[in-house]
Amino acid sequence: MKKTITLFICLFSLSLATWAQDKTVTGKVTSSQDKLGIPGVSILEPGTTNGTVSDIDGKYSIKVKSTTTQLRFSGTGLTTRTVDIPASNSLDLTMQPDVQKIGEVVVTALGIKRE
Prior knowledge:
alpha+beta, Immunoglobulin-like, four-stranded antiparallel sheet, 16% helix
């Protein structure tokens, strides 16, 4: 009887450990204009504070929960995108520029003293 209970507890513990596994998503972020890698793109797991940033070649790797189905990509001057994670856990993405016109910029020199 004790062996059966011990075996049941061990199997239950192992099933919980495999159920809570994380997965690693890797890929490359490129520009739609010149197809080169974009450094400094933020990649976030929605609903958490888990994230990473693409390297100098636009490559990234992020460890997410096994239940996570999407990643959010954002960067300065780029359109923010939320993309589904494919079954292969390899996600290459092409980012579009976010062009906005501004009216005008006024630069002032307040607080500068001259002798």
